[in-house]
Amino acid sequence: MDVTGIARIATEMADFNTKEAVGIAVLKKTIDINAAGALALIEAIPDNSQSALNLPLNLGRNINTTA
After folding, report:
1. How many Cα atoms sit within 13 Å of 58 on the Cβ side?
2. Residue 53: in which H helix or E strand, if any?
3. Among 27, 28, 39, 57, which has the minimal tally of Cβ within 10 Å of its Cβ?
4. pLDDT tens per residue across span 8-54
5. How far is CA 46 from CA 25, 40, 41, 42, in A?
6. How far apart are CA 11 and CA 23, in angstroms?
7. Count of CA atoms in the C-beta half-sphere (13 A) of 34
8. Where are the domains of the chain?
9. Nearest 5 degrees, angle CA 10-CA 11-CA 14?
10. Distance between CA 67 and CA 63 in Å, rounded?
């Protein structure tokens, strides 16, 4: 039995597991950053109930279907 081959395989497996763990951590951080950005965009949307009161009643009631 080749002891150095077994040691090399064990080292490669440990290295792969470490790289995989780092990749998963980076993916989770990226997802968290994207979620925070999406939440900031959603919170930046103005409240329509306040702005709709200032608009004329006929605005936004008809759709022009000709092109």
Report:
1. 0
2. none
3. 57
4. 888 999 999 999 999 999 999 999 999 999 999 999 987 765 555 67
5. 34, 12, 10, 9
6. 18
7. 6
8. 20-49
9. 85
10. 12
Q: How far apart are the first and last CA of the chain?
A: 79
Tokens for 24, please give them.
């998963």
CA–CA separation, 38 and 27 (whole Å): 16
The residue assigned the tokens 């998963």 is 24
Tokens encoding 44: 């930046």
Q: Which two tokens stand for residue 51?
A: 């702005």
- Please count the residues of the chain: 67
